[in-house]
Amino acid sequence: MSKGYRVRSSRRHREAAPARKRRVQYQMEMMRSLRHVNIDHLHVGWYQSTYYGSFVSRALLDSQFSYQHAIEESVVLIYDPIKTAQGSLSLKAYRLTPKLMEICKEKDFSPEGLKKANIGFEQMFEEVPIVIKNSHLINVLMWELEEKSMVADKHELLNLSSSNHLEKSLQMLMDRVDDMSQEIVKYNTYSRNLSKQQQQKHQYLQRRQQDNAQRQSRGEPPLPEEDVSKMFKPPQPPPRMDTLLIAGQINTYCQNVKEFTSQNLGKLFMAEALQGHSS
């Protein structure tokens, strides 16, 4: 068993080494290109493209922890190309909270560790405000394009967004809810096994105490001491970090659905008001 693990682990390291080398090479090329056009090229984080807000994962957590552990000010940019193609720039920056950084350093993802840290999915990531500044030439170009746009083109803003976005978001939300239910089943099974073992341990200690009392009344020596902790080893608690990540992703999906429906409801009210005004 251990030999097979070593083989898989070494293979994984061999496959990961070229990927890390390519990633570093890509970063150096990008920084060199930025330097050639006289743009600040400090390495302050990384970015990830995602669809429908699906970015809360263990891989992102581990990567951001690695960056933020090396450079405290590191951030991760989350870019949604589908939402951006629909006319709404989706670009957000996140950092790990100090609480989550401390937990990741200690690697204590047990239920007791997370409870002691008093952390929930709301305290995992902190959003960093993004300010986009254009040059004066770009601002002039945008103003000229705005002047040339037809009035009829502006009515396209009232078009309802595609229902595919809502359907896909709801489908992914239901999938994560199913994952959450499986995690709940695992934790409930662990709680039942732990309670059952504690009850067996209590019964054993009571029976042993009664036996020693009877032996003492007969003038016999007590039973030899036994290591009860070895006899009743507690079951291994399931890691709760995955549950927190799933809860955080569910919250992100809910926020996306809320934003999507709010925008469409606003468009419906505006279209109704314009129709009533024209009639």
Strand-helix topology:
Layout: H1 2-36, E1 45-49, H2 58-70, E2 75-79, H3 81-85, E3 91-96, H4 98-106, H5 111-117, E4 125-128, H6 136-148, H7 151-154, H8 163-217, H9 228-231, H10 241-278
Parallel strand pairs: 1-2
Antiparallel strand pairs: 2-3, 3-4
Can you describe what's shown?
Residues 196-207 have a biased composition (Low complexity). Residues 1-99 form the JAB1/MPN/MOV34 metalloenzyme domain. Residues 1-20, 194-242 are annotated as: Disordered. Belongs to the eIF-3 subunit H family. This protein has 279 residues and is an alpha+beta fold. It has one domain (44-278). The protein has helices at residues 2-36, 58-70, 81-85, 98-106, 111-117, 136-148, 151-154, 163-217, 228-231, 241-278; strands at 45-49, 75-79, 91-96, 125-128. Strands 1-2-3-4 form a 4-stranded mixed beta sheet. α2 links the parallel β1 and β2. α8 (163-217) runs antiparallel to α10. The longest helix is centred in the C-terminal third of the chain and has 55 residues, at 163-217. It is elongated and about 105 Å long. The model is unreliable at 1-15 (pLDDT under 50).
